[in-house]
Write a structure and sequence with these properties.
alpha/beta; two-stranded antiparallel sheet; globular; Helicase, Ruva Protein, domain 3; 20 helices; Serine Threonine Protein Phosphatase 5, Tetratricopeptide repeat; 51% helix
């Protein structure tokens, strides 16, 4: 592994040295320091915006963070722009194999090796063969026969996969095997702080649903689409669930795995059925986390079938073509600038709500909640809250986790319960770096230079930057 301190010393002398930045990113990846690795590769792209090495490694980081769908979409773009860059095809083979698409993985692997023979990987090839029954991947897809009436005639299937592989497929009979949470167990009273966000949600979401006739008199409709955006770990998912609990609506959190399908046209069919379920059960809240992976900019997918799924999503949201009265569609994203601009037009995600890091009273309340049920002594929530400025809820949890680990280590030695002290928590807080700052570094640039429509005015206001 490359020596990180030496690389950082060299970069202090030559900060725009792309090979050094790539080596540093690789060194951080080997240590699984994803945030540091990401910073190194982003620094490469500031110098060389189209550098395929850095872009592929950022895709790898997305995949390691569990954002595989977004990783695949970004990788398709790289392969389209750099068709002779072999490492991109090799990573694409790995991601396809992870998605159980052995035929596609074999095609990508063979293309990578044809471009660069040094990339041969017998272990990967063996896994591909095992995943695909060791069949050759060149045969074309063919129309599927009718199998007990469970697939449409003329639909396409991959012969690499057998019927038995999908015995437990919850969508095999055309029904969506997911259920609404009839009574969400959280409302605004159980969400610490976020008062400005709550009031914004009340005005844009709750009041129109509770006073439908009054709002309709002013031309305001109930339901529609709302996009929650902000730094990761600041409670976008929690506030979405609380919104449903506040209006006593049914809540459904939709994951990408419940939409994406290997059969051509089935992903669009599933998405449509999910919206139809919500319409039948109105008032209802549909929540799409990391919606930027499902609503990515279509310019990034020149040849991808994902474009048709995006078009379907737009059609379901469009108030002119779909009856979504009483259906609230909430999307959450850390990167609203990656969404296709069509999603931000009226009738779709036309209302944006910025979810900032918790303020001091909210941090105080989060700390009290974190301390519940733990052996804590001498806790001063207000004092600790002042020391964790800019921390997200997830960052505060990391502070507690580190302090608890230290106390647990002492308890294991003594055989007695050792309480977590204020001093230990402050010591942990000094070690944990607020993850929100990196997000604001990116958001600030978009808010200043790509804010013609005023979407990111709340970010500027939060940062104290006047327009």
């Amino acid at each position: 592994m490359a020596d990180i301190p030496s690389l950082k010393q060299a970069l202090a002398v030559s900060p725009d040295n792309v090979p050094l930045l790539l080596m540093l990113g690789e060194a951080y990846l080997e240590q699984f320091s994803l945030d540091d690795a990401k910073s190194s590769y982003e620094a490469v792209l500031r110098v060389d915006p189209v550098n395929p090495h850095a872009r592929v490694q950022l895709v790898q980081i997305l995949n390691l963070e569990g954002r595989s769908s977004e990783a695949i979409l970004r990788l398709e773009q790289i392969c389209g722009e750099h068709p002779n860059f072999a490492p991109a095809w090799l990573l694409r083979a790995r991601l396809a194999l992870n998605e159980n698409r052995a035929r596609e993985a074999r095609e990508h692997y063979e293309r990578a090796v044809a471009l660069d023979a040094s990339l041969k990987n017998e272990d990967l090839l063996r896994r591909i063969r095992q995943g695909g029954g060791q069949r050759i991947a060149e045969e074309p897809r063919e129309p599927s026969p009718q199998r007990n009436g469970d697939r449409q005639a003329g639909a396409y299937y991959d012969p690499e996969f057998e019927e038995d592989d999908f015995e437990d497929d919850p969508f095999g009979d055309g029904d969506i095997d997911i259920e609404f949470d009839q009574k969400p167990d959280v409302d605004f009273d159980r969400v610490g702080g976020m008062e400005a966000v709550k009031e914004d949600i009340r005005m844009k979401i709750l009041y129109p649903l509770e006073n439908r006739e009054l709002f309709e008199a002013y031309g305001k409709r109930a339901g529609g689409g709302v996009l929650l955006y902000g730094p990761p770990g600041c409670g976008k998912t929690l506030i979405s669930r609380a919104t449903a609990g506040e209006i006593h609506a049914k809540f459904l959190s939709v994951g990408l795995h419940q939409i994406l399908d290997m059969w051509i046209g089935k992903s669009e069919e599933k998405l449509h059925e999910i919206f139809e379920m919500a319409r039948r059960h109105a008032p209802a809240v549909l929540f799409f986390d990391e919606v930027d992976a499902l609503a990515a900019d279509r310019k990034d997918m020149r040849t991808s079938a994902g474009r048709t799924l995006i078009n379907q999503f737009l059609a379901e949201l469009d108030s002119e073509s779909s009856k979504n009265d009483g259906v609230l569609v909430l999307g959450a994203t850390n990167a609203p600038w990656h969404l296709d601009s069509a999603f931000l037009r009226p009738g779709r995600f036309d209302r944006l709500i910025f979810v900032p890091p918790p303020d001091e009273p909210a941090r105080d309340q989060i700390i009290r909640i974190m301390a519940e049920g733990k052996p804590v002594a001498g806790l001063d929530p207000a004092g600790l809250a002042r020391k964790v400025k800019d921390f997200s809820g997830a960052d505060i949890k990391a502070v507690f986790d580190q302090a608890v680990e230290g106390a647990l280590s002492e308890a294991m030695k003594s055989g007695k319960i050792v309480p977590v002290t204020q001093k230990q928590l402050l010591k942990s807080a000094a070690k944990v770096k607020p993850s929100t700052r990196k997000w604001f570094e990116s958001a600030r640039n978009y808010a200043l230079y790509a804010n013609q429509s005023g979407f990111y005015d709340d970010v500027l206001h939060y940062l104290g930057i006047g327009k």
